[in-house]
Amino acid sequence: MFYPNKLRAAVYTIGWTVLLAAFPLLVISVSQLSFLYQSWLHLLQNDHSASVGFSVAGWLYTWFHIDAKNATVLIGALVFCLPFLKWKYYNDVQFKLFFLSSILLWIVIFNHKAESATFIIAVTGIAIWFFSQKRTLLNTILFATAFIFTILSPTDLFPKSIRENFVIPYVLKAVPCILIWFKIMYDLLFFKPGSNNLTPAGKAV
Question: Cα–Cα distance between 161 and 172 in angstroms, integer?
Answer without folding.
Answer: 14
